[in-house]
Amino acid sequence: MSGLVAQHIRMEFGTHTAVSDAHFSVAEGEFVTLLGPSGCGKTTLLKIIAGFLAPSAGRILMGGVDVTDVPPEARDTAMCFQSYALFPHLDVRANLEFGLRQKRVAHAERSRRLDSVIAQLELGAHLAKLRDQVRIEIRRIQRTHGLTALYVTHDQAEALSMSDRIFVMNRGVIEQEAAPEVLYHQPRTAFVADFIGAANILPVLDQQPLAEGSLVRTPMGALTMAGTVTGPAIAWRPERARILPPGARAVNAFEARITDRAFVGDHIDLQVEINGLIQRLRLPHCPQAVGEVLRFALDLEDILPLEQGA
Question: Where is the ABC transporter domain (predicted)?
Answer without folding.
Answer: 4-196
